[in-house]
Amino acid sequence: MKMIYLDHAATTATDPEVLEAMLPYFHEHYGNPSSIYSMSRVSKNAIENAREIVANALGANPKEIVFTSSGSECDNFAIKGVALAKQQKGNHIITSSIEHHAVLYTCKFLEKNGFTVTYLPIDQDGIVKLDELEKAITPQTILITVMHANNEIGTIQPIRQIGEIARKNGITFHTDAVQTFGHIPVNVDNLNVDILSISGHKFYGPKGVGALYIRKGIKITPLIHGGDQERRRRASTENVPGIIGLGKAVEIAGKVMKSEAIRQTKLRDEFIRAILDNIDDARLNGHPSLRLPNNVNISFEGIEGESILLNLDIERIAASTGSACSSSSLEPSHVLLSIGLTHEFAHGSVRFSLGKQTTKDELDYVVEALPGIVKKLRAMSPLYKK
Amino acid sequence: MKMIYLDHAATTATDPEVLEAMLPYFHEHYGNPSSIYSMSRVSKNAIENAREIVANALGANPKEIVFTSSGSECDNFAIKGVALAKQQKGNHIITSSIEHHAVLYTCKFLEKNGFTVTYLPIDQDGIVKLDELEKAITPQTILITVMHANNEIGTIQPIRQIGEIARKNGITFHTDAVQTFGHIPVNVDNLNVDILSISGHKFYGPKGVGALYIRKGIKITPLIHGGDQERRRRASTENVPGIIGLGKAVEIAGKVMKSEAIRQTKLRDEFIRAILDNIDDARLNGHPSLRLPNNVNISFEGIEGESILLNLDIERIAASTGSACSSSSLEPSHVLLSIGLTHEFAHGSVRFSLGKQTTKDELDYVVEALPGIVKKLRAMSPLYKK
Amino acid sequence: MEPYSEKVMDHFRNPRNVGEIENPDGVGHVGNPMCGDVMEMYIKVKDNVIVDAKFKTFGCGAAIATSSMATELVIGKTIDEARQITNKVVAEALDGLPPVKMHCSNLAEEALEAAIKDYHQKQKKN
Amino acid sequence: MEPYSEKVMDHFRNPRNVGEIENPDGVGHVGNPMCGDVMEMYIKVKDNVIVDAKFKTFGCGAAIATSSMATELVIGKTIDEARQITNKVVAEALDGLPPVKMHCSNLAEEALEAAIKDYHQKQKKN
Ligand SMILES: Cc1ncc(COP(=O)(O)O)c(C=O)c1O
Ligand SMILES: Cc1ncc(COP(=O)(O)O)c(C=O)c1O
After folding, report:
1. Confidence class for position A1, pLDDT limits 50, 70, 90
2. CA A61, CA A150: separation in Å to the nearest integer?
3. Would the N or C end of chain D have less CB density within 10 A of its end CB?
4. Which residue of D has its CA nearest to A45?
5. What is the pLDDT of residues C39-57, one digit of tens each?
6. The pLDDT of residue C102
7. Is C99 near chain B, with CB under 8 Å?
8. Measured between beta carbons, which residues in chain A are less than 8 angstroms from residue D3?
């Protein structure tokens, strides 16, 4: 039996069409795009074409796009880059308490190096409190960074309003759009953002490539110094096949995003209802409607997440506890704690994230398998007494 | 007619065998290596296997290898990482005046942020003066970073001795081995290095992937904060196909490196002799024998490098002026100035770098084409009066 | 994370001795739901020999497998012999645990210790 | 770098008016080998009209092409008309230059200016 893959928020399979587009750039058009001879023009033109595709999708100018190696690099580049470039102006950064670790730990790092950071609280659905944001702003505030949608609970933030507040106060605004770009509309002008992070492998592009949108005029110090690539904002010989793949993935997303968002939202809501109908003492985490079309995050009372995942794996269902990168950690998710879950409940959460290939049949299969797993684990749990 | 590609120091074509090894990891084994379910084990095992291959090639432990996205990232990570981790101990860094821009501009960046940097002079062949190194060391010195071989003139540095001096003084030692690894033997213990940079696309691996060797016990602050990947030293969902490709390229290099080094050295020396025999007022830059097997760097009096390259390109020969990433710069190469060339002579330099596919016939063709090009350009040069 | 051994997965899939013992001679209760691990171990003792052991565990795969293995290891052992069952013994019996999961075997050792302590205290009272 | 236009490459491959003019009426010598560009422009003037122009250039592709184009543009022009040939005019005649190479067209304008200035000074002396 094939795996039922419900961890698209962790990573997606590279679309075969994307891989196809990349292939000529490995050993046919392999020229270094920065070289002067004519054979390099093919790779140079190809990455500029990809840049245009990404820019168009965002409503941006190609010159405002910098290719990077990942979502994490984008977040580090954005936050450290603005912090360094604007440190003469102030040393205060505002973020939310439910950011991805690439943002959170970058902020923690800056705290150790002379910056102060405000972590905004969120409501029980995972939405940043705008009044708290306004209160947090000081004359020292140089950067606001709030993610577009959360990777664990799927809640979509009021980015446009946050951007308005930032602009009104003359503060640079970054958003981590790694979970939204390619899945729901992301337009930098509609969202009032200055800097925006994208990661290829989250929407059927290749792993190891990302893009950072940097609005014209925004000051930012490079994270990777060296050669003149990317208009001197990110040194390194360009990852040509990766960039071409990213461009192709954006192109495909442009075509299918709308219909997929509708289809997945419907599947998602049916799936949530079926789980909650079939299993007692379970709850949905995140906002019921302001959420990613593909995100389902459920807590099960009295049992622990990893043991649920292992049992799902035995049934050939791939899911996660929220964030793949911290799966070796003993701490429960900071996101689930932030929305008010107890440690115990937070430990018992599972994220199912749907994708383009996900079918109703697959989800039905999960709905059938899940109650037995929960029952078995609860039977051996000292914490579940019902 | 096919292109005669003599710019392997800028980038190489990905070996078809390398691409072959990567292919299953795009949309077959695409699982996030950090995930818990069994399908992720394939990608996890594959990257650990690649890590072992890289470690073995270096004489290192797999735990000492961190995968990155490029040689430039490695250099930035190494230098900024040590500077930050050891800033309590001191703020002085020693490097050479002929480093790649990824090292040089990282040092310049640190100079703006409270560090002091000594740029060691080199002799006329491009070799760092060891007595100057010893003199430069102060109690504040926390890092020495000197490249293994220079990317423009190919000179190989006395890394082992530099490492000895560093160790004697308790100073962390980093070397940029981007031009040597995969081409000549690189063993971290023989070389006495603590940190070492590698880039995949310089030895027939894919673009967009590198590796940093970090000796056990060496303190280093991450450049990219976030998830727990790479033992918390470099966050980002792993570039699985890229890492597999890097591993494969190292494996292949292990088999052919020795014979290729001999073959290319012979071709190189014949090529140098033929050029100097056929063209007056030309000189070889870099050390005559302590040089990369594939590097040929020649200055032609009275004419300018780019116009030579363009004429070579018309003859379907791809070469470079030294460093692809600064080809849009008006400054002559800092490396050529450092070895004592006049600005004018430095402007008239061309680097030919050989590769696995390079044949004697190709080089003979260049030897035939070059005198005419030089003659034509000299005829229109106001600086060549002979 | 490194994958679990086959032994761990076997004990996770089919945990031995799940449940509670009515009127146990000793109970150990260790761990903390905040940390994601809670273990309860029940023992029945006759003539200084552990004749039965059961467990209930809230926790990850390793926590469940180590609980299961620990109960298997103690059944039939004298109290003194059971005391020799350290976290290392349990982990080795499972063909090892991933480094990040070693604390789970500590938990099993502690639960056993606590159950034996409880047994001794009950003995004193009687 | 952005690639050169076809026009640039045409003038680079087949530069027009390469060389020196014996007994020129004006010579302009601009640029600096340190910066990688040196341009010499020679003009022959008859009845206030530039009847011939030649150049010698040490420099990149753009430097050579702009020199060549500048000589083509001035031949047949009066001195006053030649003065109108700015760097922009030269660059446009070449269908544009990559941004990093725009300084080369400045050089061509300067060389022409210098040659005209030299011509005027020689006139005064006579
Ligand atoms: C010596 C040296 N260091 C660093 C680099 C940077 O490597 P990458 O282009 O992979 O970032 C290069 C090549 O570009 C190099 O030759
Ligand atoms: C919201 C968010 N930000 C950043 C990242 C990091 O992206 P990457 O793994 O490409 O570095 C992820 C996913 O891992 C994410 O979900």
Report:
1. low
2. 27
3. C
4. D2
5. 999 999 999 999 999 999 9
6. 85
7. no
8. 38, 41, 44
> D70-114, pLDDT tens digit by residue?
999 999 999 999 999 999 999 999 999 998 888 888 899 999 999
- Residue B95: pLDDT above 90? yes
A228 C-alpha to ligand 1 centroid (Å): 12
**Among D6, D35, D36, D100, which one carries the catalytic annotation?**
D35
Q: Rounded to whole angstroms, how far apart are CA atoms B104 and B169? A: 23
Q: For residue D63, which residues of chain B lie inside 8 Å, CB to CB?
A: 304, 307
The fraction of chain A above a pLDDT of 90, given in percent, is 93
Cross-chain residue pair B235–A108, CB shorter than 8 Å: no
d(CA B140, CA B117): 11
Q: Is the beta carbon of B54 within 6 A of some atom in ligand 1?
A: no
DSSP letters, chain D, are -PPPPHHHHHHHHS-SSBS--SS-SEEEEEEEGGGTEEEEEEEEEETTEEEEEEEEEES-HHHHHHHHHHHHHHTT-BHHHHHT--HHHHHHHTT---GGGHHHHHHHHHHHHHHHHHHHHHHHH-
Contact across the interface for C38 and A314, Cβ inside 8 Å: no
Q: Give the span between the Cα atoms of A357 and A354, in whole angstroms.
A: 8
A306 Cα distance to chain centroid: 22
| Dihedral angle, C-alpha C16, C21, C26, C31, nearest 10 ° | 60
State how far the Cα of B211 lies from the Cα of B239, in Å rounded to an integer.
12
Instruction: pLDDT band for A324, please (50, 70, 90 cuts).
Output: very low
Q: Is the CB of A199 under 6 A from ligand 2?
A: yes
ipTM: 0.94
User: pTM for this structure?
Assistant: 0.96
Whether B150 lines ligand 1, by a CB cut-off of 6 Å, is: no
- Helix-strand-coil split of chain C, %, nearest 5: 50, 25, 25
What span, in angstroms and rounded, lies between the C-alpha atoms of D1 and B327?
Answer: 7
Using the Cβ of B109 and the Cβ atoms of chain A, whether some distance falls under 8 Å is answered with yes
**D1 touches A: beta carbon within 8 Å:** yes
Give the residue on A whose Cα is nearest the Cα of C58: A381
